[in-house]
Amino acid sequence: MEDVLEVRDLRMRYGKTDVLNGVSFAARRGEMLALLGPNGAGKTTTIEILEGFRMRSAGEVSVLGTDPAHGGEAWRARTGVVLQSWRDHAKWQVRELLAHLGRYYAPYSTASVTRPWDVDDLLETVGLTAHARKRVRNLSGGQRRRLDVAIGIVGRPELLFLDEPTVGFDPEARRDFHDVLHRLTDREQTTILLTTHDLDEAERLADRILILVGGTIIADGSADELARAMSGQSEVRWSRDGQRFVHAADDATAFVRELFRQYGESVEDLEVRRASLEDTYMALVRLAEHGAPRKLTAVAA
Amino acid sequence: MNPTLVAARAGLSRGWIEFKQTLTRPNDLIAILVTTGGFLVAMIWTRNTHVPGTDFSLGTTMLVSVLGLNVVVYGVVTMGDLLVVEREDGTLLRAKAIPNGMLGYLVGKVVNVSGQVALVVAITLLIGAFLFTGLAIGSPGSWLTLAWVLVLGLLATLPLGAVLGSLFPSERSAGRWWLLLLGGLAAISGIFYPITHLPVFLQWIGQVFPMYWLGLGMRSALLPNALAAVELGHSWRHLATFGVLSAWAVAGLMLAPVLLRRMARRESGSAVAARRDKVMGRA
User: Fold this and answer.
1) How far apart are CA B14 and CA B33, in angstroms?
2) Chain B residues near residue A163 by CB distance under 8 angstroms
3) Number of compact structural domains in chain A
4) Is the confidence at residue A300, as pLDDT, over 60?
5) Which of B86, B97, B100 lies at the smallest CB-CB distance from A81?
6) Which domain holds residue A127?
7) CATH number assigned to the domain comprising residue A147
8) Which chain A residue's Cα is nearest to B23?
9) How confident is residue A297, by pLDDT bands cut at 50, 70 and 90?
10) How many domains does chain B have?
11) Count of CB contacts below 8 A, A vs B?
12) Interface touch B90/A104, C-beta < 8 Å
């Protein structure tokens, strides 16, 4: 199947600073990709280049088969954008705004995709039906964010960009929002590229995780694949004679066996934890930033 | 369905919705009423003063001239301010993110601001008709002149507002400029007192800008013909009015798309976020 998104050796330089040093990745139709990385790693720059909002310095980029630097209005109609913070259209009513913004997409309807999304159906989908007549300024943070997403998808985009979509959500709103995204990828075959700081969210949502550090992709795979790639990082905790210990073992089983052989009955509170995405992420980022993983050594509490 | 046409039509309804919001939002409405009311007080004050060399009420002349000032205030300042504010709050970026959104956005702005100008002119005239004497509003010719001066005035000022709005870096810096610009221009454009009483070089400067010609055009429409005698050249100078306002319109319409495109090109999520952080850091 044709790649919806293809980035090869993308480079971005501001003055003398290289923000992106050769980023390459691709996404297939219906795939959900999470772009992770520390602040300043180039996530926003990458996503803005793909959205066509920023010119790149070098590299090849194809979004829905078009170079976003030259994407026309018809191309624009096939993409959806949800940015980090919107404060716009505060005086508009929720339903009124969605209906208005949907109108622009009507000429871009095709046999397979009816544009725009029916407003009432869309309100139902993002859970804003009860607030249809509310002014945008009177929405809560979570409701406002759901409206942003609704505006992002009102044109039934084939590709949706989400920049930190769930900042400020309570757990329930977050869960509802995740359901909406899953429905989009499953039912609408929408491709989604999202950036987030919430590793738990990335693990739960994304088919594939990209970790961007220092302007390059240092990892590309599912949460499981990444964890397996860093399998040496299982964490073993125990206590002995009232002292607590933590050790990151390459082979947890062998380590624990050795532990018992040496200390036998005096080992207590044993706990072995496979690397979570967070551990994997931290290890990978550290590896990329310092050239070597920080050794996790036994520490006295 | 032609996408451009669809967006233009969406822009029309966008303008209408925003205009209605202006009318139903107490803050916006109060701002309009306070400015209009302030001017009316000044006019009533001078109602019984005469235009030098005539026995015509200075207040009535001022009332009519202020209509011209209003076109500049709304066409340039309101338009420019909306652009600056909506660039900061992300409305413009939103428009950029949807197909032909910028076109719809601009059409909407033009409709909204034109609506506000029409409203203010109507309110001022309505009150003026009751409180002031000497308004020549009986003949169809008056209304015809008023109509073309108004339309040409909007064509001259709206693109200018868009140009300035796209140049000002922030809402706060824009505020200072507007005040300076308007205050200075009003003083040398013969709005509150006949321009003939100014030093000649100031008369020339005043005649470069649209405000003088809008004031003159409004006076020619709504004052008795005899009052042309106190104007420069003892004439309403319709041809010159048409010429100067058209020149501003052409210049603005040529410059505005270039600058608006430049401004839109620079818009991105991080640009909006950076401006917001700056505003919050200062607050």
Assistant:
1) 23
2) 269
3) 2
4) no
5) B97
6) 3-221
7) 3.40.50.300
8) A91
9) very low
10) 1
11) 91
12) no
Residue range B60-85: mean pLDDT, rounded: 90
- A76:B97 CB<8 A: yes
Residue A211 lies in a domain: yes
Q: Which residue of A has its CA nearest to B21?
A: A91
Residues of B in contact with A87 (CB under 8 A): 89-90, 276
Q: Are residues A182 and A272 in the same domain?
A: no
How far out from the chain centre does Cα B272 lie? Answer: 27
What's the rounded Cα separation, in Å, for the pair A44 and B78?
33
CA distance B98 to B102: 8
What pLDDT sits at residue B264? 79
pLDDT of residue A145: 86
Q: Is the same domain home to A263 and A189?
A: no
> Is B68 in contact with B216 (CB distance < 8 Å)?
yes
Are A36 and A128 found together in one domain? yes
pLDDT at B140 over 50: yes
What token pair was written down for A208? 């594939």
CB-based contact (8 Å) between A105 and chain B? Answer: yes
Q: Give yes or no for A114 touching B (CB within 8 A).
A: no
Strand order of the β-sheet with A3-14 is A17-28, A3-14, A58-63
Write down the mean pLDDT value for chain B.
87
Nearest to B6 among A74, A104, A151 (CB): A104
| Cβ contact A108–B7 (<8 Å) | no
**pTM assigned to the model:** 0.85
Determine the distance in angstroms separating the CA of A294 from the nearest CA of chain B, rounded to an integer.
33
Q: Report the percentage of chain A scoring pLDDT > 70.
A: 94
Q: Do B269 and A163 touch (CB under 8 A)?
A: yes
Distance from CA of A53 to the nearest CA of B (A): 6
Q: How far is CA A118 from CA A150, A170, A188, A225, B52, in A?
A: 11, 28, 14, 39, 65
Note the pLDDT of residue A232: 57
Q: Are residues A30 and A84 in the same domain?
A: yes
Among A46, A83, A84, A53, which Cα is nearest to A68's?
A: A53
| Interchain CB contact of B6 with A (< 8 Å) | yes
Report whether A221 contacts A277 (CB < 8 A): no
Nearest-CA distance B81 → chain A (Å)? 15
B7/A51 Cβ within 8 A: no
Q: Per-residue DSSP letters for A196-231?
A: -S-HHHHHHH-SEEEEEETTEEEEEE-HHHHHHHTG
Length of chain B equals 283
The answer to whether residue A183 is domain-embedded is yes
**Where among A221, A250, A272 does a domain terminate?**
A221
- Per-residue model confidence (pLDDT) at position A299: 33
Q: Is the ipTM of this complex over 0.95?
A: no
Contact B96/A at CB under 8 A: yes
Binary contact (B99, A96; C-beta < 8 A): no
For residue B179, count CB atoms less than 10 angstroms from its CB and return exposed for 0-12, middle for 13-18, buried for 19 or more. exposed
Classify residue B209: in a domain, yes or no.
yes
